[in-house]
Amino acid sequence: MAGMTWTIAPERHDSPVAAALWRAYYTEVSDRWYQLYEGRATDPDELEREIAADTGGHLAPPGGTLLVARYEGEPVGTAGVRLLNAGTAELKRVFVHKEMRGRGGAPRLVAAAEDAARTLGARRIVLDTRHDLVEARALYARLGYTETPPHNDQAYAEHWFAKVLS
């Protein structure tokens, strides 16, 4: 549509916008897991504990960056990167609100995160995801990520990907 614009810019990991997007992201992926494996939504107390437990501080400078995508000025998505070591960054929290999917936001977010990783000095970017997040796995494959052996032992990680940053 003419006139509809995306912007992507760094955001403080602890801003109200970042907090709202983290809540939306975590709620969706947690509910999806519980619906698939236990036929129920996430317990509200557990949801609050887990959201509070991950402040996103690892996405703060100097070793990380949180990006927020806005569509027509409204915050609708997020992606973050953090350095794991001098040459490798990790892609985190890639999320676009469900009603905004299919409009090109996720590829833009990932490209901006890759640029941020390069700025941090990374030559390679890695990520992990779950088996049930098939849309995410398809997106990463489409964007040139290749599946690799595990690079971490995260509880819910079932697929690991990497990409060389040129």
UniProtKB/TrEMBL annotation:
<keyword id="KW-0012">Acyltransferase</keyword>
<dbReference type="Pfam" id="PF00583">
    <property type="entry name" value="Acetyltransf_1"/>
</dbReference>
<keyword id="KW-0808">Transferase</keyword>
<dbReference type="InterPro" id="IPR000182">
    <property type="entry name" value="GNAT_dom"/>
</dbReference>
<protein>
    <submittedName>
        <fullName>GNAT family N-acetyltransferase</fullName>
    </submittedName>
</protein>
<dbReference type="InterPro" id="IPR050832">
    <property type="entry name" value="Bact_Acetyltransf"/>
</dbReference>
<feature type="domain" description="N-acetyltransferase">
    <location>
        <begin position="20"/>
        <end position="166"/>
    </location>
</feature>
<dbReference type="InterPro" id="IPR016181">
    <property type="entry name" value="Acyl_CoA_acyltransferase"/>
</dbReference>
